[in-house]
Amino acid sequence: METILQLKGLSKKFGSLTAVKNLSFDIQKGNVYGILGPNGSGKSTTLGMVLNVVNPTSGSFNWFDGTLNTHEALKKVGAIIESPNFYPSMSAEDNLKLVCKIKGVHSSRINEVLEIVSLLDRKKDHFKSYSLGMKQRLAIASALLNNPEILILDEPTNGLDPQGIHQIREIIKKIASEGMTILLASHLLDEVEKVCTHVVVIRKGVKLYSGPVDEMNATHGFFELKSESNSELKVFLEAHPAIESYEEDDANVIKAILSKPYSAQLLNQESFDKDIVLTHLVQRKETLEEQFLKLTKEQ
Amino acid sequence: MLRLLSIEFHKLKNNKAAKVLSLIYFLLFSAIALFASIRFNFGSIDFRLADQGIFNFPYIWHFNAYFVAFLKLFLAIVIVSMVSSEYTNRTLKQNLIDGLSKKEFILSKFYGVITFALASTLLLFIVSLTLGLIFSDYDEIGIIFSDLEYILAYFLKLVGFFSMCLFFGILLKRSAFALGFLFLIWVFEGIVQLLVKFQAESLDFILDFLPLQAMGNLIVEPLTRLGIVKSTAVQLNSEFTKSYDVEWSAVLIVLGWSFIFIYSSWKLLQKRDL
């Protein structure tokens, strides 16, 4: 598999504060990665370093197996960071023309990318007349200009209204479905969950996990159970070989965590045989949010 | 190089402030020339600046190069704002992310500086040539195109000054601060000059190395060279001799400063986190 980006022990200190600590991970072609972490966990600093705007304190990174130096490599990358940065008095079209000149690509794709983010009819307007959502969409258009090998998005929905968030998500999903490698930094977990195949979790600049989303927490999921007599149900669960542990919440719903794969049908049958009639039975895996909270809490 | 120049030109073309200021600069430039050719007629006094010999070849090269250089302040504002606006709009960051290297960024700005200096020098040449052809008492080709080193000195003076502006723009990130700092340097050099003159005359040589002073040394004031003024001066002081040539030492010092300013801009940007 082709490695697009490789981080090797990357660290960044701002004075006495360590923003990123000894971070290593690889980005492979064709996957959609999410960098997860609470606010101030070092996501943007990490992206800043690989994007040539923040100088690493120690460690190194390689673009495309080190065949290109950083600024040459960035011409094959499409990236937007935090807020969209463009020349306010230039029109969208002129701004994109400038990006084409910097990246050394022909400006023939401008209309095409403006179409993708539905800004084609506003291309002659000054950037400063755009709403935040439109600015963010223009930034995505700009990142797509060179048909990038990888698209890097840092908090693309920050500060947008629900409609704007929806639009950006649809665009990302569309791009992801076309097989483009994407690196998405966000603290919004449902955002990441919907599109990512792989995640890197960092907290206070330290990597907690990197790998496929579904292996993040190697569990087999859990059942949510409820019956008229929860005490009998608990005895049954206690003795069950596939149940690792259980707990009851305020609404008397019991959460039984599995120690191995098990079917809901079988469990229902077994409990019925023991005269326990379930009023509520749901089998599911932990959401990314639950996994994430668990992971960040453990440390 | 063409790529960087076209990037910088694209930015300037779409920058209203830069366009307006440059226009004012070039208009003022031409207006000054026109002003000199106006005939003042107050009753018995019939005076025209152009008739005082200032537009005689080759003296005109020296005279114009010295006086229009004051207007460079207008372009300095353009240079400073074209650098600092990249910081305030955070477009510098975006440029780097899009694949411009920090070196290329500084180079593209330096090419902008060269372009402004070149355009201004060209205008000086054309305006002076036109005025000279109209008013000069001498019009032999050999005389017209002598003493052209003042035009080159003017170009170098602008490059040096604009490089300094570029550096302050990068250093301070805000136009107002950068221009204020420029003023402070000017005041500072004035103080150093006074100190040296009255307290430590043996340190005289230091003065030639101060950046603004060095740029000023490139083109010595031309007034005392003018016929009437000079004859008065010689009468008052028979030993009055002064070199009006463009000194090599001044050229080298200004070149040195330009290099220092551009190189430090690059190093500064390289060290910075954006």
Automatic annotation (TrEMBL), chain A:
Alphabetic keyword roster: ATP-binding, Nucleotide-binding, Transport
InterPro entries (alphabetical): AAA+_ATPase, ABC_transporter-like_ATP-bd, ABC_transporter-like_CS, P-loop_NTPase
Source species, domain of life: Bacteria
Tagged with keyword Cytoplasm: no
Domain ABC transporter: 5-229
UniProt GO molecular function: ATP binding; ATP hydrolysis activity
Keyword tRNA-binding belongs to the record: no
Family, as annotated: Belongs to the ABC transporter superfamily.
Protein name (record): Antimicrobial efflux ABC transporter, ATPse component CcmA-like protein
Organism: Psychroflexus gondwanensis ACAM 44
SMART domains: AAA
Automatic annotation (TrEMBL), chain B:
Domain of life: Bacteria
TM region positions: 20-40, 60-83, 110-135, 150-170, 177-196, 248-269
Keywords: Membrane, Transmembrane, Transmembrane helix
Record protein name field: ABC-type transporter, binding protein component
Gene source species: Psychroflexus gondwanensis ACAM 44
